[in-house]
Amino acid sequence: MNKPKKFVGIDIGSETFFAAIGAMENTGWKIIVRPTEFQNTVDQLPQFVGWLNKQNLTPKNCILCMEATGVYGEALAYFLVSQNYQVVVEPPLKVKRAFKVAGHKSDPVDSCQIAEYAYRFCDQLRFWQPREEIYEQIKALLTLREQCVVQRTAHKNANHALKRKVVRTPLAERIHEQAIEELNHHIKEIEQEIEHLINQDPPSKGLLKNIKSIPGIGSILAVHFLVSMQTAPDPYCPKNLAAYIGICPYEDSSGTSRHRLDTSRHYGPSAMRRLLYLAAMSAREHQPKFRQYFLRKVAEGKPKQLVINNIANKLLRIVCAVARTGNPYIEEYRSIHPDLLRIDLPLTVS
Fold first, then answer.
1. How far apart are CA 277 and CA 264, in angstroms?
2. Which of 117, 130, 13, 126 is nearest to 73 (CA)?
3. Rounded CA Rg of the chain
4. pLDDT exceeds 50 at position 350
5. Which of 73, 263, 271, 344 is the most exposed place for a label (fewest CB within 10 A)?
6. Residue 299 and residue 292: Cα distance in Å, rounded?
7. pLDDT per residue as tens digits for the range 274-286
8. How confident is the model at residue 79 (pLDDT cuts 50, 70, 90)?
9. Is residue 342 part of a domain?
10. Same structural domain for residues 187 and 268?
11. Cβ–Cβ contacts within 10 Å for residue 279, how many?
């Protein structure tokens, strides 16, 4: 990436946002335009672009960086991309860790730090692009389904506890049962809508079918993979996708006084991580190859949880291979090194 001349840091709030402009000059990094406040409403966004034009900022000579704040910054990101600006949306924790904890903490200060962050890490930035409408809808439905599942579990647990009490409360039990029944209906309705949306997009339908052909991968987990592959960096690389989901173990040791097992950071989509764990458990129980692998590693002294995580990573590699090749899972498939295909074998055997 050719480093542009100017960087705009945007600190998003629910009602307003601050923008500051920085650049590298002969004396070093400097904020050349102090933080300015704008209304965070759709009808006021053109005024922000007008302000950028007054500062002689064009889509080709600047990068605009903001933190990921969910729906608060979504409208601004969509609008700026529609105007051909280069937009970067970074995790807040990543920006925070780039600076020492010192000085004041306010929205104007944050906008200056975000601009400096964009300059310092320019070669590592990934420009933000909106997902296709179908995937935005599917993602929202998956989130709603997860909320319904959590509420259903809470009602089931509460109802189970009520039925074990000596003094029963029929009204409370009936309300719990009605809520469970209604949530079951909503979950089924959500799943049908997700299937309907995917059927409208033949490439997504084909990819989903191939992912579901992998043992242990169910429909909902396959849909999660489908959506994650639209946002994860280099989604066809198993290591990158594992890090995105949060199942990539990292070394945690320092000097001679720190001794810990390798562990993942547990960042990323928690629902997808849980479903992948359940898929690994299912593969361990019902797939002979994975079961043999599990028993062998446990016999070698490996922790069971670590082996289950390894199985999840193996499933992840299969998902990436299936998505990359566009072919369904083949149980007895064996890869061949390309160099072996160049060896001249005898046509007859004496």
1. 13
2. 13
3. 26
4. no
5. 344
6. 11
7. 999 999 999 999 9
8. very high
9. no
10. no
11. 22
